[in-house]
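## Example record

The block below lists the input lines for one assembly entry, exactly as stored, with component labels intact.
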Amino acid sequence: MAREKFQTLTEQMFYILLCLRGECCGVDIMERVTAMTEGRVTIGPGTLYSLLESFVQEGFIRETRSEGRKRSYIITESGKHRLEEEYQRILRQAQDYRRYGVEGIL
Amino acid sequence: MIEKKFLLNWYQSNDTAAMEEKMEKMAEKGWLLERVGSGGWHFRRAEPQKVKYTITYFPAASVFDGGPTEGQETYADYCAAAGWEFVCAYGPMQYFRSTRPDPVPIETDEGEKLCAIHRSMLKTWVLSYGMLLAVWLLNLGLRLSELRRRPLSFLSSNRNIAFLVLIVFFVLYLAAFLLDYFIWYFRSKKAVAEGGVCLRPHTKARFWASMVLLAVAALAVLTMVSEVSSPGMAWVWVYAFGGMAVMLVLSQGLMALMKKRGCSREATRTAFFVAVVVLAIAYTTGVTVVVSRLRSAGLMDEKRPAYTYQVSGSWSWKIYHDDLPLTLEDLGYTVTVEDRCSYEMEGSRSFLLGYWTCTQRPVPRSGSDLPDLEYDVIEIPWDWLRNYVVERQAAEYAWEEVNDPRWGADRMFHTSWYIGTGEREDRKVEQFLLVYGDRIYCFTTGCDQVCTTEQLLAAVEKLK
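Predicted structure tokens for the full assembly:
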């Protein structure tokens, strides 16, 4: 189920993983993502909570610190790999757009 | 001035949008949600205000939790950071509100939202409705089996018919709920996969279905209660309803107490289920005890005997003087007072049909040489049903329809067989099904029976 879920990362998944290239507290991720995308992408707290749980289960991120209920996370090698794959997929999409959409090669 | 308000929750649990709209309208009218119970919402009076509500599902939470789990608290912390105040929770349902004009929605991924709703629904409503459906289906099977085994006896009681209708409605309601939920889930899943949002469930349809079910249930219970024909039965009903209410209060009270004392989820859940099982056993044992006590006190008798005759020691015999359509006297027997004959019509009548077994028998050990008379009477005012019953009875017992004007019957069926080997006339037994107007009579005559066919034929005028 989880494998199928992460075959293609949604924008929100992509930015959470990207944000966690550096250690970050769960609550702060929402603000960071909004800042990174200049408000284009917002992550709801409920969605953030369940995605963090799923990422931990999948091994894409790991918990680094826990101060009371305040938990910090960081991306794992597996998560970096998945993020890189997603980046390459988006890149191919962009290249295809440039080739067929802008230059008009068919 | 009223400071508190309670509203029943008629909404489908997966229709969070409709519930949120309701909360927001209540806030505009000056009522803020305070807590949620098993039946509905509790509000407190406040200044009328614009408040945004969001109901989310937290699948890991349970109704047996004494307070929020660590996960729930972390979840609430995330929501608080986004401007959402945690209001209350009921099992996996979490209620939040925000006074910000345009807060970031708690759920920004429809797939995650649908997944949380589905996981929560499976372990709560779908599970409990599925278990209820199984119980009611078992009940329906038992009632239908009784209807198949003793159709006339079953259908002659309004109580049986009302209960059967109630069960059928319950089964349909529960099955429709489960079907509707799964249709909603799979359609929403498809919509989300295509980039859309979760669909709105059919809350209005559910509301009206609930109303119809309530009306049917009320009508069925009224019918069953109105059929109470003995003081003992009234006590049984009091016990049945009162016992259920006590069971509910005790089991819910125990759960509330354990939650209040901060017991673990496992301890509360185990104690609750043990309490339910123990109470259910006590309840059903109680029914048996109450009924047997009332029966031995003579309070369960649906009619009072003319008098009770003491046969010997503790053996008494109830003597009835019911008005039988045909008696031993009509068949040419001489019945004396010393015979202490009991004339009894035992059965009942519903709006569909009446079905009675008529007996006339002398008291045992009276020295009477009178035989026991026994026959069945069925009264059906509906032509279509009468014809159906007659045809069915005839087919079941291989009776042949005959036309014998001597009997003057509207319809007449007959069958015969011989006792022992050979076909001796003095060993012949005959059975008659006679239809006179609304009534159907079933008599057996001949060898070892109470009368001969000729005796019955001579008395048949009385049946017309």
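The two ends of chain B are 72 Å apart (CA to CA). Residues 97 and 379 of chain B are 65 Å apart (CA to CA).
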